[in-house]
Amino acid sequence: MGKTARLLPLVLTAAALVPLPPSADPSYREIPLDGPSVRAETTPFGMVGITWPLGVQGVTANVRVQRDGQWTDWQPMNIEDEHGPDPSDSEGIERDGTEPLWVGNATGVQASAVNAAGAVRDAKVVLIQPGVLSSDSEEPGGTVEAASSRAPYPMPLMVSRKRWGADERLRAHNGASCVRPKYTKTVLAAFVHHTADRNDYTRTQVPAMVRAMYAYHVKSRGWCDLGYNFLVDRFGRVFEGRYGGAQLPVLGAHTSSFNANSFGVAVIGNFEQTAPPPAMLESTARVIAWKLDANYRSPLATIVLDGSRLHTVSGHRDTKATACPGTQLYNKLGWLKQRVNTLMSGSFSTPIYEYARKLGFRNLGQPFWGEHRTRTGWATYFGTRDVFYSVATGPHSTSGAFRTRYRRLGAGSARLGLPITDAYEVTGGARQKFQRGWLVWDRRDRQVHLVYGRSF
């Protein structure tokens, strides 16, 4: 592309500078591409992207960077089409753009953005220096509980937002409405993506890459947060994405029009021509198995989202005309579904699930907080009831005013313990028995009262 790229009408040239040390402070810079040739000096950066106003069609973007005094070859930038919030969501999109590209420690950039009409007006090159944190070289710690036929597939080890260095103040960048996470009703499906980035990154670079993607999605694209719910690197490590609680159905911005009732897993790299490593595929399967099993969804089923019938495990290209998640990864989706099914033991058999079946899911509503461990047992929060289980108590649920009061107490609290009956009517109201007390609803004052003690 060398000769062709030199003839593109909109070019930015950044002079080479002495690289900053790895502890360089984070920085974010946008440089206008508003002339046939623009020259600018810049401090070192680790990620580059190109953005332009909404609605501009047919953009072709190219970039090359300078590292260690040498210019790389020109590289086409992947257009970030059909990522982002749902059209019905209040979360906005301020600009269209490319996928961000990790370049390591670059000191110069040349970039172009053109379409059939020529140079794209108001195009900008985004240069992000995520800096380096002492925690970048740390590995996720903790233990993973063993899976069994009576427990959902366990949550895999995960690098938390705090561990990868998310600046939570950034969520307020696009307004106060972005600070609080948004939740969807349940989890019905998983969408698999690739970030269309480099495949030769190192282990210690990944947290910085995630921080840079976070900054690009918020500052350059106008989203509330990082678009993906989870990310997986080529070494098989899982990273928590969008804020709001990994166990909850956080509304992401990964598959426009299909974010509701789904979650997005992005593998870090470009897998159009390169096959994803086995460790990456295995960890992706484990994340999906954990989320689907907790919400009682089969990876071999189909569901309807936004009027389209899709597999519960789908690639981004199943929803729109996009190359994501890359041909080589997309070709592995069949294996991925079968692997998820194997990890989930092919069926649901937990006491909470069997109890829910007896009550009827139409009465319970959809799982909101999928089956998870509590301090004293297990729980699933459905649309209308919360169901709790331990070996000592068996499965029982709270609903209505009892559920509201129990949640305020701290559901599963050591003081009251788990429910050992469901609520039942008595003269003057209703009551529900717990391991160490009662919740009593009085019809006269229409309040739920707390009474400690085994008898009442």
Automatic annotation (TrEMBL):
The keyword Signal applies. GO terms for molecular function: N-acetylmuramoyl-L-alanine amidase activity; zinc ion binding. InterPro entries: Amidase/PGRP_sf (IPR036505), Amidase_domain (IPR002502), LGFP (IPR013207), PGRP (IPR015510), PGRP_domain_met/bac (IPR006619). Residues 70-99 are annotated as: Disordered. Residues 174-326 form the N-acetylmuramoyl-L-alanine amidase domain. Transmembrane segments: none annotated. Gene3D superfamilies: Peptidoglycan recognition protein-like. Keywords: Signal. Residues 1-24 form the signal peptide. The keyword Ion transport does not apply. It comes from the Bacteria. Residues 156-310 form the Peptidoglycan recognition protein family domain. One of its GO terms (biological process) is peptidoglycan catabolic process. Residues 80-98 have a biased composition (Basic and acidic residues). It holds the Pfam family LGFP. PANTHER family: PEPTIDOGLYCAN RECOGNITION PROTEIN, PEPTIDOGLYCAN-RECOGNITION PROTEIN LC-RELATED. Belongs to the N-acetylmuramoyl-L-alanine amidase 2 family. This is Peptidoglycan recognition protein family domain-containing protein. It comes from Kribbella sindirgiensis.
